[in-house]
């Protein structure tokens, strides 16, 4: 829906029993302060997807019932969001440039899903420390493609060895991180079922590593995840794989799938 002047009406604050509010792709640039009245919200999606920064008033800290929270990719520089006691959050999507105080994550011990768009190295380092406290994570996405797309990211921006991915409950992992080769098998979560790789620029065939992850059910390689010319799936690899998705791999010239893979 397109709202006049890009402003969500303040009357939204009168819906005090609202549990679900999704503004995905709504083109809203201003949110009213009356939203602080929506204290029973369980799900709030503010990924409004417009080209200009979004004005988000400091209304979240009292929404202590929230389970799902999606923040806009771009917010006004003066935006100061206090997350307060959102200790019940189970799924959280945010852009580190706009919410660099990732130490807030330390209190969100119930988080099962986390998606972070990283903008600077220091936020990655702080995030790495915070993640160690989130033992219940089942889904994790680390997305650096914003900087990669703008050509502002060095290959040394992130070393995955600094990030402990050994979450016992993690089932789904997404990495939009530049790396010439995929991490070793032992660096991945032991029961990983789904992996999504994008903008990685991997030069060395990732299949010899991925096919050893015994519980993998789906693999997605998209947006220049793998830029090599040859890929080999070995006999006995991928014992549980159900879906393999390869997008726009223009450099791929040879794909060998051995019998029994």
UniProtKB/TrEMBL annotation:
The keyword Repeat applies. Keywords: Repeat. It holds the Pfam family LRR_14. Residues 11-249 form the Disease resistance R13L4/SHOC-2-like LRR domain. Gene3D superfamilies: Ribonuclease Inhibitor (3.80.10.10). InterPro entries: LRR_dom_sf (IPR032675), LRR_R13L4/SHOC2-like (IPR055414). This is Disease resistance protein RPP8. The keyword NAD does not apply.
